[in-house]
Amino acid sequence: MAAITSVIPRPTSYEGLWGWMTTVDHKRIAVLYGVTAFIFLLIAGLEAGVIRMQLASADSTLVSPGRFNQMFTMHATTMVFMVIMPLSVSFFNFVIPLAIGARDVAFPRLNALSYWIFLFGGILLHMSFVVDQVPDAGWFSYANLTEKPFSVDRGLDFWSISLLVLGTSSVAGGLNFIVTIINMRAPGMSMMRMPVFVWMTLITSILLVLAFPVITVGLIELTMDRNFGTHFFIPAQGGDPILWQHLFWVFGHPEVYILILPAMGIVSEILPTFSRKPLFGYPFVIFSGIVIAIMGWAVWSHHMFTVGLGPVANSVFTITTMLIAVPTGVKIFNWIGTLWRGALEFTTPMMFALGFVALFIIGGLSGVSHAVSPSDFQQQDTYYIVAHIHYVLFGGSMFGIFAGTYYWFPKITGKMLNETLGKINFWLLFIGMNLTFFPMHFLGLNGMPRRIYTYTAEFGWEYLNQIASFGYLVLLIGILVFMYNVWQSRNSRHVGHDPWDAPGIEWSIASPPPPYNFAEIPQVLGRDHYWIVKENAEAAGTPITGPEPTVDPKSIHMPSPSYWPLFTAVGVALIGGGLLSHFALSFVGGAIAFVGVIGWSNEPAAAPNDHH
Amino acid sequence: MSPEISENSHTLRSNDDYSTVKMASLERLAESVVDELNKAQGESQMGLLPFRRTGNVSEQSVSNTTKSIGRRSSLKNRSVIFGLLAALFLFAVGCSKDGMSPFDPMGPVAAKQLDLFNVLMWVMVIVFVLVEGVLLYAIIRYRKRPGQAKPPQTHGNTSLEITLTIIPTILVLGLAIWSVFTLFDLQDPPEGSPEALHVNVTGHQWWFEFEYPDAGNGKKIITANELRIPVDRPITLSLESDDVIHSFWVPKLAGKLDMIPTHTNEMWFQADSDKINDDLPVTLYGQCAELCGLSHALMKFQVTVMDQADFDSWAAAYGPPPTISARAKAGQAVFAANCTLCHTIDGPDDPVLSASRLTGFLTGGDITPVPAPNLTDLRTRHTLAAGLVDLSETNLLSWLHDPSEIKANNYMSQRAVMYKTETGTSNLTNEEIDALIGYLLDLQ
Questions:
Q1: Does residue A390 lie in a domain region?
Q2: Model ipTM?
Q3: Is residue A584 included in any domain, yes or no?
Q4: Residue A53 included in any domain
Q5: Distance of alpha carbon A400 from its chain centroid, rounded?
């Protein structure tokens, strides 16, 4: 077999659809991740719309209870695993090699494999709509509601198997970025000179690699329970549904930091740029990130305060959860310290970054309130929690992602997004977000449970629900403005390589960057490398006016495109698809993946006609 | 708090006393914030906030005169107070005392939990106003001015970082310690309480079962969806589930605790007569708080707080319908023929029968018995279908005719033989249903 596969030459085309399908260029993979995740964002947004329209009035009968359960399950699962995580990975992909002065990630083909598995995993989950057997037990899918006879259709199988597939993508991606960041930094870039976004990527990647195996164990056990007669979580047969909760939240809480740390990194890049001064307290921001990542493993049971683990366990998790607020607070102080005495320019990325800080403070404060377990007994599983997670994940993660999109868009495309539209976009999302989610604090405090498809008017919940549903429409318009902004940018003029006068190394090269990124690997001078370079040039009387000159791409050896990541990913997806339809298909998928791995390892280092 | 809300809360005490307390504590808070800010202002002159001392010349020269410091400080204080007032107003408008709201606790457990939340709320409001205020100040004050030179390139300040790490650490540890004490404090009824009444609560898809092993004089009672409790006496509860995980929650008595198959969770609460302003009996609301399937939103229950004497007479009267009238006698026969596979009406359920019903439910199938509410005291209840509708002849009629009209997903319409018709409506005649209603409600 090795002989057969090794004679297949590497693809050579960088153009067209085939070029995208075989690409191993981190910048193109970033775009693939971004576009795919944005489409999933639209799907999840529509699901949220169904939820909000149903809850806009008391005793509403717009959708059936079953459909409603499907909507909130798919909304959250999609947003967590198929929107925020891959959008973060999209930024990892585009920014990390550029920000550390490298030409690509450590394992370019593995990077492509991660993307294709993510895409197929997402499609696999959404196939559940095609057969109308949609997961409906919540994104946390607490056992034993997920077990037969309480969940008889294939919905939960779609959920668990798709997440298993997506998990392989995340772990592969996490490993790739750990190796890239540790090994491929340009000379001069010591760990304590790395941009904060690179640090947060490193921490997030480590969390990914450590957290996903835990959920994988749970998902495999759930799949076995549902399909092969085991009873890990079936109490009637000696299993324990609480085991699932521990497995889920030991993964789930680090996952929360996987979702927020990248956005914190993005904001830590943008605030200094537009304050025109370096990040305040760089080592404190870094170490607070590390402390969060470590302590994030010791707080999971605050999701389980009402499970009845007893006052000792609840006390321990009360204290640890309280303490994790401290490093988070340190970050906020340092962001404000960065603004202090700066010269703030209110560009769209800056406004999103400031919006992030303002909204994350609210999410952080309500987060502290969950830690007070006796009080949390009243708020657990109410809309108060829904308000909190949306302040953290929408006001936090999504605002960070929008900030990053507006910030790096000129580097990705060479063109600027319209600033006026950007500000309209910002204000619509900022106002819409507060209209939608702020009333939910009060709904929850007034006793409205989560995940109820209907409510009666007698408890006074209707008015606030109407405000929240109206806010959704404002958010929707905000997203449409963003889409129009991206669409209209194709006509805008090309901007220079460094439109923001930014400190990062990535701004020293052309926009969009050439395939090889850096013609010459830079010698890093300090934390804010490009500011130092520009200042030195200014002092020497030769100010920098253009990007690093480009060279003939053939003179720099870059990895050639490859068929194998896509081929192998098809195999992995078929293994999952077979578990959901015919087991025979899984064996076909396994065979394809096996051939893929053999072909992969025997592939020539470059296309024969590629110049070295 | 709007007038409509207080009118709605007919079973609950008035809102006025709560608002008064809030306003008084607001004034105290405003004073202390002013003090704190004055202190902070003084400290910043001493160099605790070092970035104030260096840098931008034009701004610095203005703030160096004592007069303008005083003016700015009072302006700042006023805006902080305004911010606090605005946050409080929002809170007062947003928080209601309706049936499911924990802001009107009726017993010691909920009251202590609310005490913690109230302090927590103040901490959150103060931190929110201060941090967002500083953020907003920085945004306005340090915006780039035309022709402004590059700002001073500061990199941080270690002593400030350490200060700003220690202060929140103390704050959160204080809250944590108080939480831990409250946790242990609320674990059991306090010493010297009256003898507790014990209730075993079992969650079912989608209704609650209450079993009193000894409701008085050794009498065992099993009922559903309406928990009756005597006032001023601790109620200890053992929570379980016999299908999926549910959560037991009566916001005005205590926070929630999950009901988990094969795990028994213990909790307690008490309704205090001095916390209830209305005449007894008072009805409080509860609802399942853990997603438990299709009708999770419809899994509600009520808690009726009664005088001990009323409770005793209810317990004494607990027993099968007397069946004096001819209508009730006819209904008894209909019940025996159609309902007894799942429902018990002559006292507490037989444990062996309950176990076989559970087995029937878990194995599934088209026509198998399932656990169902005990109907012995149905005639004394107020609601039907797990707190969903009032118990009236009309509602009971439409429920018996087609339960899925009232509660879309329920096991009665799915499993009972009488609903195995083409339309899914009952195969009983109108007369039979009428007789059945007469029997269940002990009517003439």
A1: yes
A2: 0.92
A3: no
A4: yes
A5: 11
CATH architecture of B326-441: Sandwich (2.60)
- Using the 8-state DSSP alphabet, how is residue B442 labeled? T
Q: Is B155 on the interface with A (CB under 8 A)?
A: yes
Helices and strands: H and E segment counts in chain B: 13, 12
What is the DSSP code string of B286-319? EE--S--STTGGG-EEEEEEE-HHHHHHHHHH-S
Please state, in angstroms and rounded to a whole number, the distance separating the CA atoms of residues A145 and A156.
10
Task: Name the closest residue on chain A to residue B140, using Cα atoms.
Answer: A344
Question: Per-domain residue ranges for chain B?
Answer: 3-145, 197-317, 326-441
* Residue of B91, B131, B291, B294 to mutate when probing chain A, most A C-beta within 10 A: B291
Q: What single-letter amino acid sits at A161?
A: I
| Distance (Å, whole) CA B87 – CA B97 | 18
Q: Which domain holds residue A99?
A: 25-559
Edge to edge, what strands does the sheet with B207-212 contain? B221-224, B207-212, B197-204, B235-241, B265-269
Opening angle at CA B145, ends B140 and B148, nearest 5: 130
Pairing of strands B300-306, B226-230: parallel
Specify the CATH superfamily of domain B197-317. Cupredoxins -  blue copper proteins (2.60.40.420)
Partner-chain residue, chosen from B94, B179, B288, that has the shortest CB–CB distance to A374: B179
Q: ∠ CA(A554), CA(A560), CA(A564), 5° rounding?
A: 175
Catalytic-residue membership of A302: yes
Q: Does B2 touch chain A (CB under 8 A)?
A: no
DSSP 8-state assignment for residue A82: I
User: What chain A residue is nearest to B126 in terms of C-alpha separation?
Assistant: A365
Residues from chain B contacting residue A337 (CB–CB below 8 Å): 51, 156-157, 160
Distance between A462 CA and the closest CA of chain B, angstroms: 12
Q: Which B-chain residues 104-143 have CB contacts (< 8 A) with chain A? A: 110, 112-114, 116-117, 120-121, 123-124, 127-128, 131-132, 134-135, 138-139, 142-143
Cα dihedral A149/A151/A153/A157 (nearest 10): -120
Classify residue A10: in a domain, yes or no. Answer: no
Contact A372 B175 (CB under 8 A): yes
Q: CB atoms < 10 A from the CB of A572, how many? A: 23
CATH number of the domain encompassing residue A46: 1.20.210.10
From first to last of its 444 residues, what are the pLDDT tens digits of chain B? 343 444 343 433 444 444 444 444 444 544 554 444 444 433 333 333 333 333 343 443 333 434 444 445 555 667 777 777 777 777 666 777 788 999 999 999 999 999 999 999 889 999 999 999 999 999 999 999 988 888 988 888 899 999 999 999 999 999 999 999 999 999 999 999 999 999 999 999 999 999 999 999 899 999 999 999 999 999 999 999 999 999 999 999 999 999 999 999 999 999 999 999 888 899 999 999 999 999 999 999 999 999 999 999 999 999 988 888 888 899 999 999 999 999 999 999 999 999 999 988 888 777 788 999 999 999 999 999 888 889 999 999 999 999 988 888 888 988 888 888 888 888 899 999 999 999 998 876
- Select the residue of A149, A315, A344 nearest B362 (Cβ to Cβ): A149
Please give the C-alpha separations between residue A12 and each of A24, A450, A553, A601, A603, in angstroms, as whole numbers. Answer: 12, 53, 14, 18, 13
- Strand, coil or helix: B388: coil
Q: Which residue of chain B comes nearest to A454, CA vs CA?
A: B297
3-state secondary structure of B239: strand
In chain A, the number of structural domains is: 1
Q: Which of the residues A72, A301, A459, A527 would you substitute to probe the B interface, choosing the one with the greatest number of B C-beta atoms within 10 Å?
A: A459
Strand partners, B212: B221
Both tokens assigned to A505: 């190394």
Chain A nearest C-alpha distance from B416 (Å)? 18
Q: How far apart are CA A331 and CA A268, in angstroms?
A: 9
Whole-number Å distance between alpha carbons of B109 and B189: 9
